[in-house]
Fold each of these.
Amino acid sequence: MHLKKILIVFVFMICSALAQVNDTTYSLTTELGLGYSRYFTTMDYSDLNKNGFSGTLRVMWNPEHLLSIGLESGYQYLYSINVKNYDTEFGTTDFSASMYTVPIFIVLAMKVTPNIKLTAGSGMYLLFNAGNMFGDEIKSNQISIGLHTGINYTVPINNSISLGGELLYSYFSKMQDQTVAIQFLFVYDLFRY
Amino acid sequence: MKTIIILCASLLLIYSCNNEVDITNPVVDPSNFLSETTPLPLDSKKVMEGVYNVTEGNNLLGDQVVVKWTRDRLSIFSGKNGGYIILDGGSLDSVLFFLGYWRYATNTETGVVNFYISSGEGGKKILNGDTTATDIVFTGVYGNGKESANKTIKLQYKRPFSQAVRNGNFYILAHRGGGRNSDYLGVSENSIEMINIAERFGSTGIEIDARLSKDGVPFIYHDSDINLRLTQKSLIWGNIEDFTWPQIRSLITLRNGEKIPKLLEVLSFVLHKTELRAVWLDTKDVDVLPAEIELQKAIMDTAMTMGRDLKIAVGIPADDILQAFLNYPGHENILSLCELSIDNVRQANSEIWAPRWTQGTQNSEVQQMHTEGRMAFVWTLDEPSYIEEFINESEFDGILSNYPTIVSYYHYIK
């Protein structure tokens, strides 16, 4: 369902961008986002910590069109859990597990006003699992296809720096779970041509 | 205009994707009526088996069906949409009662079905174990989905199974322990619960997928990773063989709520709780091979002391596994099943050759295998028309299918 909504936004943005031209110079910008992430899952563990750090780093190419395109990576905390005296058929154990992800995405962004941009991205999430159970380390990783969409608001501070904020929704197809992140955004123009 | 067309086409594509399936499981015997009946004796069960004409209710089952007792249920297999009926039964006075459900194997249609066999229409003869009973009539009603049973259905005894079927040693092998998750059977593939019902689908053997945990415990699971096709959401993700057995067992739950079983549990269950005659161990990773062979030997030794006819074949599906098998001391004497070439079968001295069905009936190769005292199974055959063709035109000793009910129908009407 979420996948469908994101794809609709994606298609809408592409079609709108194709239809509009804006007379500006080309530029390459880097966008650093740092903030808080909340994980949404149907997993039923009362001790599950779903709040954590979110960070994104994008390099965007901005042509004369309203639509810009770029690459994104970063870090997003998903969950962690620590359970004392966890009962299993093998006996009682202390148990911990956590998951974070590193996205490798292609991102499209479209200016809807001079300060507001809609973003949508797709690619893969590298999922990293860690923890401990019965004294044995839990360590594994996996790749998930994913999507995200967001909205950001930035204000120029000078010719090359803008500051603002971003609300980002992400979907992980492997787990069919989502996160919502709110981030402080730092945008720096690497160069214009 | 072009943009609008692209947009509309994209939206249509997006909304055409819907993988949610709603299957309504019928409620069988809500009043617990069968608890008031007496279980049927073994001699009676054999009397009922055979091919029956469908004289009413052809919409559901077509023109003829196979009636076959499995370990604990009466199964009816039809040629229409791979339809089958699973029934529990008992007698009250000299009337036989059966309650259960029907299902089409090739889609998700299902419903409740009830039968009785009156005293004068074979009930009394069946209970007496009279093997000359040829006037058996099943009279019943069935419903669709959640509706109550209200449509008439009647089965009239036509003939016993042919001599070839009765004297043959054909193997009907169920994929992934009995069936796949994608067929919505109510239990998960590669679970003890699935194996427990595999015989109701007519299976006389099963194929299961063996893997090895990080700490060296062989278990059964198909895919290399933890995923929602096979499991419920869990706290751990990744390559399943990266985890220890206590972690796998404690933290992962299969799709329908079962726990992942150890290979030892599965083989013990097959030996002690079922009448299955064959287990095809699909070796998913080369590392599991030694542990698989040790367990195979232990369980087959026990089976032999019990006088139980049970073949457990170590699967050789790929070249790396063949190489590891050939390096295993005494491999010539290990019961194995090789999916590779005939030369590889001879090299490994495999008792069973198992080619893919797409290679055709290969009758001359199968005959060669028979001449050498080997058997030949074909996999994984699901299309009803091909199942019929392989049953009637090939000389294979067994068929592996996701739809053993369809294989059963075409085999028993032969």
Amino acid sequence: MKFKKYLTLLLLVPLFAFTLHKYYISLCEIEYVEEQKSLQITLGIFINDLEFTLNKDYEKTLNLATKQEVKDIDAYYLNYLREHFKISINNEPKIYDYIGKEYDNDIVRFYLEISNIKELKSIEVTNTSLFRDFENQQNIIKIKANNSNKTFYLTPNNVKGFLNY
Amino acid sequence: MKKKLILILSIVAVSTSFYGQEIQQPKEKQQAHYNVSKFKQLNQELPTPNKQHTASGAPGYEYTQQQVDYKMNIVLDEDNNRLFGEETITYHNNSKDNLDYLWVQLDQNMRAPNSKTNAIKGGGPDALYSASKFTKLFMGKPFQGGFNIEYITDASGNNLNYMINSTMMRVDLPKPLTSDEKFIFNIKWWYNINDYTAIRGRSGYEPFPDGNNLYIIAQFFPRLAVYNNVEGWQNMQFWGHSEFALEFGNYEVSITTPKDYILNGTGVVQNPKDVFSKKQYKRYVEANTSYDNPVFIVTPEEALEAEKGRSDKTKIWKMYAENVRDFAFATSRKLIWDAMAVKLNDKTVMAYSLYPNEGNPLWEEHSTRVVANTLKVYSEHTFDYPYPQATSINAKQQGMEYPMICWNFGRPNAEGKYTERTKKGMIGVVTHEVGHNFFPMIVNSDERQWTWMDEGINSFVEILAEYKYDAELFPMKGKPKDITRYMSGDQDKISPIMSQGGTIFNFGANAYAKPAAGLYILRQTIMGPELFDYAFKTYAKRWAFKHPTPADFFRSMEDASAMDLDWFWRGWFYTTGNNDIGIKEVKKYYVTDKPTERAENMAKAYGITVDQLPASLYLVSEDSKEFNKDLKNKNPEDYNLLNDYIKKNFSSEEKATLKAPKYFYELVFEKPGDLVMPIIVEFTYEDGTKERKQYPAEIWRLNDKEVTKVFPSSKAISKITIDPDEQTADVDITNNSWPKNKETKFEKFKRNQIKG
């Protein structure tokens, strides 16, 4: 059996995009680079799943990562990220810069940055991406800062990771 | 005297490591341990070989296998969505054992109201419930699925005792069935067919807005469980997740459908003149020689016409299949049928696709061509496809395999347009499911125990077949890299590949992608295609139409290649470890003829003076006290010792080919990862040229954390990269380059963005 369709049968969404990958995770890597006072964020999400969700949200066929992709796709991405991916630094919500995105096989990887952070005392990451449509979705957050590494596994029941230094 | 001294020195050289340890020996008593080497052989993990499953990985001379033949009459009731069946089963006991009872699989019972499948599922409420699901789950109106057994009788019509335990049924034999005897019995049954788009399932029907159904019927009759040399009866319950294995046998099946239905299934239609129109029959025969392009047997226009009607008459499809492990069929009045002949060495087999007009134009463009390509590529890597045909059925949301027939998803939108992604998904699933004809339909592993043996092995060959079909859409590059996200994840949520299919967390990554990536690494990087392909083919041929176990695969791959791969199976299949190799340090060395401090110490330790050392060359590290800048300009040939030796021992032709390296590098590799892997090193020289070197995984056999290697070179190295093509599933590549790449991936991306 092809696993990709099997999982979708567990869902109640009848019109499902044709997914190629076989598991449901996103990976976010966050690094605080003290010398640059910068928080560097990369966030990789499976294109198929994101396309399914965005198509539904906008009632459009966005054709991600194909020749027919809509022209202002970055606006759609940023809009989605702003709503579902949030960061607070030192107990203060922060707006990140959208540096860009790249397509890497089945994955879209976003590059985001928060600059002018003189000191990182605490960080809170919320990532609810894809939770609405994919019940097995797991959003992994890896944080590298102040000489320590910490990983969070966010699920629909647990959408936030918080670290105090 | 001189000879003796050299002998002593060679002992000295060997002994220095012991000498070093003596000094460092800690005062506290160290704990003893078992053999913890990653290269320890797998003797304790693998079952002891015997005359049935041999040490070489081949079936032994006492290997036995049962045969089960079926004669069935099936009736499809489209008005009530019911399936009725009468079957006569002939069970051949080829084992040496006496059997008191037979176990029969009743997969449909997974959908029975009293099924325990839902009882073992944990978790909170669903995100949303359809009205039908809500009534089924909470309002006491479950789907009335499951087998209704009307009778089970012996050949003379006497009732047989039976007992049903969920999805398994024990049929008690009147007297023990002895070796080489056969037992004939009959079962009559019926069940309600599920709408699989509402209730999940690998079979059922898909309702269309035009009022028609497309039936994909499988796991639909009581089927004999496997009785083999390793597990006895394979009667582990069917919980709905991990699949199944069955005995091989011959099937004679008559299926009654409405008169305007089209049907194909496992085997070959025996009465084509009765079931096709005259035109269709003519095209059915002509297709047998259509090697270049698919041709229609049932045209889109005929299907469009048929789906408007609803005949109340019936017709009977007579199917026959030889030496298959199961039987399935698909049927509807909506079906188009196209066909293409495929040449495999000296034989021709048929590639078929059946799909509704809703599947077009995607399906007529690709399905049958993909079936043909899959048969060709898989045949090259295993054995020539032994069955007469392979069929791909277009079924919404499905991807499921049966012998000679499989269900595959992928349809254009309502306007008949499809994206590259839809096309890629459809080609991928057709390749995968048709590929399953080889693993596990023919190389018949126990899917319920070892999901990876059919899914993982199949997903691996699938990569090669997809690449052959469309290299641009399915690039091979980056294949092992994709698994690193899973392998570097939370250890609490990773199971070893060698886990029973129902007990793994991340089914797709664990049973499909990781074993496929492992085999890909074995083929491309560790063994090389030539050694790998021969061994892989050996396994496939040895176990075609038989029941292999994991040990048979592991052993065959080593047996046919002379490669000890126990370390690879142990790490990749038996543990949850991942690979991370880095370059820790690079030191430059220069040649001198003056004894170094190390040489002096060596002499001292064995009670001789430095003068007593034979004339030798020494390597001096750039950061040592003995180093001076003059050494930088010296070539090894500048030392008389080397020059004289070369003059004395080599002819002028030989001398011309000798070239002393100018630079010596000491490379220190570190391995934070748990797995052992070959080290692939790319050297970039100052003149811009590059060179690759691959050290076998065995380089880690004496030190699992760090190894050092001396690399002589005639050119200065400016850059070193470990695993430059990311072919070993290295989970952290930040330690893969020297000089250390200070720029992070993020910064590189940002710089390129600004430039762009």
